[in-house]
Amino acid sequence: MKDDRKSRNDALVGAKRRASRFERNAVTRIGSEHRWHWSDTYHMVLRLSWPRFFLLVVCIYLGVNTLFATLYWAVPGTVVNARPGAFADVFFFSVETLATVGYGVMSPGSLYGHLVASTEIVLGMLVTAVMTGLMFARFSRPTARVLFARSMVVTMFNGTPTLMVRVANERNNMILEASVRVTLIRRERTLEGEVFYRVYDLKLDRDRSSAFALSWTVMHRIDATSPLHNKTSEDLVLDDAVFHVAITGQDETLNDTVHARELYEPDDIVFGSHYADILFEPETGKWAIDFSKFHDVANDRRAVETD
Question: What is the reported pTM?
Fold first, then answer.
């Protein structure tokens, strides 16, 4: 009996260590013929955070100017009025050349200098065009500000255990024709003893909303047909279960498709609790949402709110 209990505890610990395997960028690709391709550069730059993007721009800018400053500095007399051996002078001359701005003090002083300066001017125009395009692409990319509750809850709803997750639109507009999908990914073993991960699309009480403006409580009834039937928190951990919630719709302001997603692990599911009320009608007569209580959960003592 002790050995069985120890084996189960070891399995729980191991499953918790593996629980983040479905997180973004958590998969390592081994044996791929091409680990990197130039066509991936544009995709990679768009995925960078804004601080990293600006850091990349600064590094490219400094790198290009340092390269051409070295070419000017390597051949004495290349730049007129530059102090002999002064790297700072040729560096700032490179900055002025790359930006196609001339102040009339320093200029190319030889055929070699003119060739290097001409090459830098052409490269400068190309770099400016590429950076402008990347900046526009990043600003124009449609994004959604959908807030997901930190935890999913399992509570009784109309006499049936129900899995719930609360989401809200943080922008002061609507996401039209919004649709939501909740997917369960868990480890299973076949009759032949092979282990694989199976994906279940959980049936929802309502998976579409014509106008997603405030909050939305997404619900899945855990009945006899549900893959979560009679499952406990420990069972979900042992099964390496991961819940993937995805929302897609059309932003009425951008008139473009936006999407948002969130992952929940077994430790993120609270059994026997419901979400705190966040919708209320103040004296103004307009509906209001209290985001300060958005992530709060409470023990079951009454029916939970509906969307």
Answer: 0.72
